[in-house]
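#struct-pred
JK: can someone run the complex with zinc ion? inputs below
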Amino acid sequence: MYDAKAYSASAAKAPLAPTTIQRRDVGERDVRLDVLYCGICHSDLHQVKDDFGGAGFPMVPGHEIVGKVTRVGAKVTKFKEGDIAAVGCLVDSDRTCSECKSGFEQFCANRVLVFNSPDELLGGQTYGGFSESMVVDEDFVLRVPSKLDLAAAAPLLCAGVTVYSPLRYWKIGKGSKVGVVGLGGLGHLAVKFAHALGAHVAVLTTSARKKDDALRLGAEEVIVSTDTEAMKKQAGSFDFILDTVSGEHDVNALLQLARRDGSVVVVGLPPKPMPIGAFPLVAGRKHLSGSNIGGIAETQEMLDFAAEHGITADVEVLPIQKVNEAFDRLERGDVKYRFVLDMRPLKST
Ligand code: NAP
Ligand code: ZN
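RT: done, structure tokens with the ligand placed:
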């Protein structure tokens, strides 16, 4: 075990504060990395507010991690000291169940999340990327293509794969009309990926001021979702709608926008259950589905696709010391379009 500096929340809604945590020593198959950048996902905010209930404290959030390898175990084959590497939401799984064998580690009943999962080696719970360094099994460490800007690549590790995975599963491409609901961290990457896949992209937003950004990011159309006339005009026209909204909203209105047999796929995690009317669902045989991050192989595929198509997040980089300011602004919707924490200043404190 060794000590590592980190930022943690001591209780639900408490501001994050500097602390020292324990990390395990590097095992045979482990990679130790110094964290360079860590994105702030709305899921980090949900968790520090304990929006879903049952969160454990003290909590060290952070699951969009890019770092530099400083040490590798004797049996590590994919990484060497000095490599740039990345870690997302997952740091382990049982590797034996049918989900793991199919590349769906995110659905493994014994998956270990990078933070807030039981830590079987050290006791307590796992600690995430708001920390100077971490130790992760090499099978859960991703390669970062050298073309990618490191700070802007960090959000790909959660936001990127969360939107890429359903776009691929629903075979989005040329000829698809895609709606992206909510232009935040996930939404702006969904626009970029869907555009790169050749789809016609429309953004559905509550914020009319985001129109120019949506068009710049690759959308062909912008619909202000509070404008009932504009929504009516789009009824029955979408093949696929990706709902990235973090708060309470009306999914029935989205079902009405889908064409016959079209899909509304929920990735946003509003804490309260969302009422679904039977009529908007049965009329037009609509599909309502969900999706959760992506497996390890798919995350690597997404990073390689991002490098090939020049896709990274639009980021505002702040030093870790400003993490509470970033959380406050994310909660107020004041973010274009992802905060990324520069973790390097933690080393010198
Ligand atoms: P974000 O940056 O805060 O973006 C969310 C966007 O949703 C906002 O920018 C806003 O867009 C819209 N919005 C927020 N509240 C709304 C409301 N009450 N009604 C309508 N629109 C609203 O958050 P994010 O990091 O992209 O995360 C989005 C959600 O996905 C969160 O709930 C997060 O926990 C979840 N998530 C899920 C997964 C998964 O695997 N399923 C992975 C990562 C994150 P406009 O201003 O354009 O309306
Ligand atoms: Zn996330």
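RT: quick notes.
The pocket of zinc ion (ligand 2) is lined by residues 41, 43, 63, 158 (CB under 6 Å).
The mean pLDDT is 98.
JK: thanks, will look after standup
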